[in-house]
TrEMBL record:
This is sn-glycerol-3-phosphate transport system permease protein UgpA. The complex is composed of two ATP-binding proteins (UgpC), two transmembrane proteins (UgpA and UgpE) and a solute-binding protein (UgpB). The chain crosses the membrane at residues 7-26, 62-89, 110-136, 156-177, 198-224, 261-281. The keyword S-adenosyl-L-methionine does not apply. The lineage of its organism: Bacteria, Pseudomonadati, Pseudomonadota, Alphaproteobacteria, Rhodospirillales. It is found in: Cell inner membrane; Cell membrane. One of its GO terms (cellular component) is plasma membrane. It holds the Pfam family BPD_transp_1. Gene3D superfamilies: MetI-like (1.10.3720.10). Part of the ABC transporter complex UgpBAEC involved in sn-glycerol-3-phosphate (G3P) import. Probably responsible for the translocation of the substrate across the membrane. It is a multi-pass membrane protein. Residues 67-282 form the ABC transmembrane type-1 domain. PANTHER family: BLL4140 PROTEIN, SN-GLYCEROL-3-PHOSPHATE TRANSPORT SYSTEM PERMEASE PROTEIN UGPA.
Amino acid sequence: MVFRDRFVPYLLLAPQVVVTIVFFLWPAGQAIYQSVLREDAFGLSRRFVWFENFDRLFADPAFWHSLGISILFAAAVATLALGASLMLANAANHVIRGRSWYRILLIWPYAIAPAIAGILWLFLFAPVVGIVPYILHQHFGWDWNHRLDRTEAMALVILAATWKLISYNFIFFLAGLQAIPRSLLEAAAIDGAGPARQFWAIIMPLLSPTTFFLLVVNGIYAFFDTFGIIHAVTAGGPGSPGATSILVYKVYRDAFLTLDLGASAAQSVVLMAIVVVLTVIQFRSVEKRVHYA
């Protein structure tokens, strides 16, 4: 499209540029600036300390613990969410009767706020009144208590975060499956290819751009957008250091509970750098196996 007035393209881009500056670039710049300052708890005085906050951060075992469980958490959530959503999308693509209702029911969880999703899973797995601990105890003799057991706490937040993410992935996978020409699958079936052969030889290569995009988005979601679930379900616990205190939650604890603003800002910068590095690695390594039509 050719615009007669040369200012029209800039005018159309202006809202997006303003949103990017206000909600992304300015907060990132403030985090970098705060990371080289030392402030008192009330924000009345500050001094420039160069990289002292980073030195204290890298010498803190709690930071390395939080970094380790963050990577474990992100890998588990992305793997489970991608696998489950692909299976559901494949099933929905073959449903004939009631197809629209089936898809709507699968998309609903995406509209639920992370904190509300965390509360729902907290009620399901509440050690005293939850239905799941009751079933586990009655049928398997398993006394579930994520408030005391570190492994169960991590498993619960992974389940809650995965459930919240499945609907988002489902929409993209279903759209990708519907874009695959039926003639390709029918030709493969005539040549004797079974469902498994069709899936790995035709469906997965054609879905690779969608899978690659979702892999990047899922990783960023697990690192940044799961604060509400962690806060509602376990509040970073149990134990010390917290079994579910991933980096984004540790940033909150250091800033608003312990009032260590410099360390919190330094962790924000490290978290931002980790996500950027992981995204670059994904683009350089995984994209080579992506087949664009």
